[in-house]
Amino acid sequence: MVTYKKETQIIALLCAILPIACENFKVREHSLIRPFQGVGVILPHWDFLGNTMVTSNYIRLTPDMQSKSGALWNYSPVMSRNWEVHVSFKVHGKGTELFGDGFAIWYTKERMKTGPVFGSKDHFSGLAIILDTYSNHNGPHNHQHPYLSAMVNNGTWSYDHDRDGTHTQLAGCEVRFRNVDYETLISIRYENDILSVSTDLENKNEWKNCFVVNNVELPTGYYLGMSATTGDLSDNHDILGFKFYSVDSSDTHEQIMSRTNIIPNAKTFEPPREHKDDPKPGMSNAKIFFILLFGMVAAVGAAIFGVSYFKDRNSRKRFY
């Protein structure tokens, strides 16, 4: 049996003899392949927290129940400058019109941090790929949900849940992946400071482009993770596979290590738009009805009181 250490040595030898053999090779320590081993307590190379449940065929970040959250985080920092991730997943539940909230795929400086952003930390440093299934936007949207978007954060910005992140998103596209009978996939490729995201949501074994963004600077040494959350609405958020590929690069070890000091940023990214509070909602028809009814009752009561008062006063004048 070939151990992972031995496998790594073989790969290193092949790379030295034939560099092309290293191009786009899958890195086991950053990947999750079915059947998942260590069911229940230990998952090799990964930590999980919250309501996450590990089975041999899927890893459920949240069940289809209210107010649940879960996360899955890789042990090892990514030291490849150029890489590609393929995530296969299923999001499904009993809801047909209302469901939520969604899940996120992370490449961040910190790991295993819970928080309000799909079960993970706000003010994160790094990259978030968000698959949002419920629209929290109180105003008009320019897109439908579910929606796939990206956010690059240097640790100073907050994800605006009330606006579904539209004030800080890098790019996005509408997606349809709920309650299908087959597994759905997303590809995230980061190469030479270009971030490209594609999907296979129709079981056609072909990638469909979602967006491509140039001039995205991400450091090496960050961690991969996935997290999900439910609120009043819910879904099963299941991870079926996570494959990490190191894309061939001519960078030296020194150049790769120097990128650990980069602050995440996107040069073509528009600054966060000003957050404007929603206008105060007008009174509902029911509220207006009860206010008018109360006013009419008060007016009738005042009229009756006035008539009674003057009748009583006139009767006293006649008496005297």
Automatic annotation (TrEMBL):
Residues 24-247 form the L-type lectin-like domain. GO terms for biological process: endoplasmic reticulum to Golgi vesicle-mediated transport. It is found in: Endomembrane system; Golgi apparatus membrane. InterPro entries: ConA-like_dom_sf, Intracellular_Lectin-GPT, Lectin_leg, VIP36_lectin. It holds the Pfam family Lectin_leg-like. It comes from the Eukaryota. SUPFAM superfamilies: Concanavalin A-like lectins/glucanases (SSF49899). One of its GO terms (cellular component) is endoplasmic reticulum-Golgi intermediate compartment. The chain crosses the membrane at residues 288-310. GO terms for molecular function: D-mannose binding; metal ion binding. It is a single-pass type I membrane protein; Single-pass membrane protein. Keywords: Disulfide bond, Glycoprotein, Golgi apparatus, Lectin, Membrane, Metal-binding, Signal, Transmembrane, Transmembrane helix. Gene3D superfamilies: 2.60.120.200. PANTHER family: RE50040P, VESICULAR MANNOSE-BINDING LECTIN. This is Vesicular integral-membrane protein VIP36.
